[in-house]
């Protein structure tokens, strides 16, 4: 099988997909924005061909490049695991008659108001939402649903530029950040109260072959706005044994069906609270910030390889063992600037080192990144344990006792 893979060199986790495809027996053709000489020898060894392009988010550029590749090699699949690349890749697939995620599915998984309209129409519980292009439309939405609401870009991943609004004064400030009274097209949603998590799958021809459930502590919007919090997400190993997850798994399967997700990875976020289980949003691609590394570490599998087995062979070769729960705790500097040092690291290592997967502690002098940049932005520790509750306690311990200093 011949697979065109979009942007193999950046971010660094992309190389794992390329490696896995090569190990599964695929001939991989890379298409990316980085010059070929930037690729290291190991990455080159997994890709017999590489094409540098001006951009990978323009469907026309991708289409022309894929058609050039088709002039010398039959192309079986075109894969793009990064959120921002999925729609252009889908358009290139259809232009070049390559099977895979359709333009309709990629659009519905990118455009949040359209996504939720489609799911509400199928009876799937989700927050009230709308696409708006003016302040008047936002005010009309508030009159219909009440505060609090959430404003966010129509497309994108993560909590960047997502804003909770509790009253009219906050609304006017938030609209100013989105372009003032003549706001650009954005999504406005009812704020859903409850605990937040995510449900990740790898599907084959629309059927979920592998799945994982993870929990956020605290919810993302709070975590990405509050410096003193050391936020976590934790992957549970109780997916098969706890009846509470049956409803979530059924919801995920129904969402995949309605949106037309075929052979693909997915990343779905959800809330559970006073109104019960509610769908939040989904991407037809893997999760970010190394979640697949955590799944692999806790389940005695190479998830990248299982994804590649699905792409190349149409089936998985192994299933999750559910042996260990795994998680990450992000450690924020006390303020922005340059990192000057740490405290509590050696003591935490002595107490918990048996359960540490790895840690990222940037050296002194490293520029900090803002809180809203996410779980990998500065320092973090990743851990695993057979007992989910014990793991949560250890991650809490690290969050309380390990401190990052900056000047």
Automatic annotation (TrEMBL):
<keyword id="KW-0658">Purine biosynthesis</keyword>
<dbReference type="InterPro" id="IPR052032">
    <property type="entry name" value="ATP-dep_AA_Ligase"/>
</dbReference>
<dbReference type="InterPro" id="IPR003135">
    <property type="entry name" value="ATP-grasp_carboxylate-amine"/>
</dbReference>
<dbReference type="Pfam" id="PF02222">
    <property type="entry name" value="ATP-grasp"/>
</dbReference>
<keyword id="KW-0436">Ligase</keyword>
<dbReference type="InterPro" id="IPR011761">
    <property type="entry name" value="ATP-grasp"/>
</dbReference>
<dbReference type="InterPro" id="IPR013815">
    <property type="entry name" value="ATP_grasp_subdomain_1"/>
</dbReference>
<keyword id="KW-0547">Nucleotide-binding</keyword>
<protein>
    <recommendedName>
        <fullName>ATP-grasp domain-containing protein</fullName>
    </recommendedName>
</protein>
<feature type="domain" description="ATP-grasp">
    <location>
        <begin position="116"/>
        <end position="312"/>
    </location>
</feature>
<keyword id="KW-0067">ATP-binding</keyword>
